[in-house]
Amino acid sequence: MDFRSVLTTCPYCAVGCNLLLQVLDGQIIGTLPAKTGPSNEASLCIKGWNVHEFIQHKDRLTKPLIRQGGSLQETTWDDALDYGAAQLTSLKDRYGAESVVFAGSARCTNEETYVFQKFARAVFGHNHIDHCARL
């Protein structure tokens, strides 16, 4: 029997709570708050306490998919990213830079949000950016 506790950051919001995933024989079986987490100080919200449940859910997507011929086909990450970039470029070329609105997520860290808005402004060339945390 192999038991480990893996220190990580909660993926649910941008607070950055530290938590410990309890791993038994390669399967995540539980979550505990990290006592050294500066933002959560050994506490977790209900989402944090249950974060281990979605990680191994049978319906969770773990590989990229591209719709081809009306159905989703498994592909590589490189091909999926190339496809997404080509589709965004096509929209920008056909309809203009303001044809796409960028909407962020409260689950993103500050660093991810910065890169997201930088991409919208520097690469796409417009300021149509929103974020659900403003609500």
Would you give an account of this structure?
- It is a single chain.
- The protein is built from 4 helices and 7 strands, in the order βββααββαβαβ.
- The protein is α+β, with helices and mostly antiparallel strands.
- It has 2 domains: 53 residues, N-terminal domain of TfIIb (Single Sheet); 70 residues, no CATH class.
- The strands form 3 sheets. The protein has a 3-stranded antiparallel β-sheet. Strands 4-5 form a two-stranded antiparallel ribbon.
- The radius of gyration is 19 Å and the shape is flat.
- The protein starts with a strand and ends with a strand.
Helix percentage range: 25-40%
Q: Going across the major beta sheet, what is the strand order?
A: 1-2-3
- Specify the biggest β-sheet: 3 strands, antiparallel
Gap between N and C termini: 46 Å
Mean pLDDT: 89
Question: Helix/strand-derived class?
Answer: alpha+beta
Number of DSSP helices? 4
Count of folded domains: 2
Question: Total strand count, please?
Answer: 7
Shape: flat
Q: Low-confidence spans: pLDDT under 50, at least 5 residues?
A: none
Q: Could you give the order of the helices and strands?
A: EEEHHEEHEHE
Oligomer: single chain
What's the Cα radius of gyration? Answer: 19 Å
Percent of residues in beta strands: 25-35%
What's the short version?
With 135 residues, the chain is α+β, with helices and mostly antiparallel strands. The chain has 4 helices and 7 strands; from the N terminus they run E-E-E-H-H-E-E-H-E-H-E.
